[in-house]
Amino acid sequence: MSVPVVAVTRQIPSPGIAPLEEAGFVVRYREVDAACPADELTELAAPAAGLFCLLSERVDAALLDAAPNLRIVANMAVGYDNIDVAACVERGVMVTNTPDVLTDATADLTWALLLAAARRIGEGERLTRTGRWSGWRPGELLGTGLGGKTLGIFGMGKIGSAVARRAVGFEMDVIYHNRRPVPGATAGYVSLEELLTRSDVIVLNAPSTPETRHVIDAAALATMKPTALLVNTARGPLVDEAALVAALQGGVIAGAGLDVYEAEPVIHPGLLELDNVVLAPHLGSATHEARAAMVQLACDNLVAVLSGQQPLTPVISLR
Ligand code: DGY
After folding, report:
1. How far apart are the C-alpha atoms of 141 and 133, rounded to whole Å?
2. Is-above-0.85 flag for pTM?
């Protein structure tokens, strides 16, 4: 039996490709710290039985057709909107992701952005770094207290639930909207309309799908409180970025914290000019611990499928 070939689309953190080499695979490692362009990806994946990819790579029907031996696409991310799952299923190709291991890291980052937006940390940092700070002033950069305020969570999956758990320490009331109520959720289920109108802070923790695209658009923003903050650590397309820029410019809402963007790595130029938005470069799962666990889990999925076992974290069943 021939040794399976595994293609790895870009440089990955520790443990790197060691688990794949230990499993005895032939590893085609594109050890470049940048997204893999489509033509290179096609060439890299062509002989592969397994593909280790990241959210920066698009896996579509054309790529799958160019890689006829492919049995598994292991995405090193919990989100898998970069993969045409239906095209994979049609061709009998397993798709896996990396849930759970990044839940806490992403919930922490959500809170980091929430707090930064509420307490105007970005503005304060710019003030001090540019030498414009003239000393303590009682009315300087006043932010928003969180105690007793309402946190609205859009998407009550694992990350949304972890965000909700952290709200207890801040003594916030938590409500959520989800495709359907979550059994045992500690927060109250509300309609999307109620979430928008009641929340003092709205955090987005839902996947990017046709249904969630632009869930925050001009109309949604108009129903939010003028004092409200919006935090997005999910995927950029959930927010109509142009509408958000207009809302932040016009005082329709008070501020935002964003980790993800509609056309990453391009950021709407209007956002870059605004002081009332905190911008992070897609850092949700960026801890040493989470990234190592994501690499290991993606590798474990590849090893399982290529040795005839069930994957640990399939996104969909092939049966
Ligand atoms: C994911 O996993 O989907 C994040 O966006 C990157 O860690």
Report:
1. 11
2. yes
